[in-house]
Design goal:
The protein has about 250 residues and is α+β, with helices and mostly antiparallel strands. The protein has 2 domains: about 110 residues, Roll (Pnp Oxidase, Chain A), CATH 2.30.110; about 140 residues, predicted glycosyltransferase like domains (Thrombin, subunit H, Beta Barrel). The chain has 3 helices and 14 strands. A hairpin with a 5-residue loop joins strand 13 and strand 14. The longest helix has 30 residues. It is elongated, with a radius of gyration of 25 Å.
């Protein structure tokens, strides 16, 4: 395989788990499976149980099937075709399984997965966020100038950052870019956290004086204060996540 398929080679070597997607009647049927081994012809995976007839049709027609698996913080996806069924694939000296031999794909796509769970911030949470543009050499704890404060509306929160709406003045777009260093003050219950951040991928909105963006936190772990801030932020997000999931379960139960 080409060098760009190193994620696939690694997954096969680790017998990693995967999802096999089989086309059927205009839909996709998804099955959990795992990589077994690589051969000169292709690579073997565990067969989807109870789908012998469908698999025979896919092989006969040369139809593509989908494969997806996780590799670190990426999700790897590709399509390929099934070459043949292997009814007695030897996993080890004691174990055989029904397997499928698949052709090596021409291309493999790696999709970045979000590392941190984001919780929606609503008014009832009484969480407040303030943000200022500051110079690169300014000490974060120093009192910022009022003129450098941004008009920010908090949208969602994760350990890695926040989603925000930023409003400009007098009908003009906000004066902030991805190059600006930001001083972030996050207040929630008895927590008052001071963080450093930068904009990430600002997007226009229907209002010319408002942009939507993320602010990526620079989490410091090299001193006690930085570790305490990170720990407090982790606790806040964890509490909000549990509450959000509880409300979702109650909603589904209702």
């Amino acid at each position: 395989m080409a060098d760009q398929n190193h994620e696939l080679k690694d997954a096969i070597a680790r017998n990693a788990g995967l999802v096999l997607s089989l086309p059927s009647a205009g839909m996709l049927r998804h099955y959990k499976s795992r990589f077994l081994s690589e051969t000169g012809q292709g690579f073997a995976i565990e067969c989807a149980p109870g789908e012998s007839t469908l698999i025979d049709e896919l092989i006969a027609n040369g139809q593509l099937v989908g494969i997806s698996f996780k590799h670190g913080m990426t999700k790897v996806v590709f399509t390929t075709c099934i070459l043949e069924k292997l009814p007695q694939f030897q996993v080890n000296s004691q174990t055989t399984v029904e397997a499928l031999l698949l052709k090596h794909p021409q291309t493999v796509k790696a999709i970045q997965r979000r590392a941190n769970y984001r919780v929606r911030v609503t008014e009832e949470l009484e969480m407040r966020l303030r943000a200022w543009r500051i110079g690169e050499k300014v000490i974060l704890r120093d009192r910022p100038m009022a003129s450098q404060e941004l008009d920010v509306e908090l949208w969602d929160l994760s350990i890695g950052g926040v989603g925000v709406l930023i409003k400009g003045k007098d009908g003009n777009p906000p004066r902030v870019t991805e190059a600006d260093r930001l001083r972030i003050q996050l207040t929630y219950q008895d927590h008052d956290l001071l963080l450093e951040g930068r904009l990430r991928e600002p997007q226009p909105t229907p209002k010319p004086d408002v942009i939507r963006s993320g602010i990526r936190f620079k989490l410091m772990q090299d001193d006690l204060a930085g570790r305490q801030t990170t720990a407090a932020l982790t606790r806040i997000v964890g509490e909000l996540q549990r509450e959000e999931l509880r409300r979702m379960r109650l909603g589904m139960a209702g």
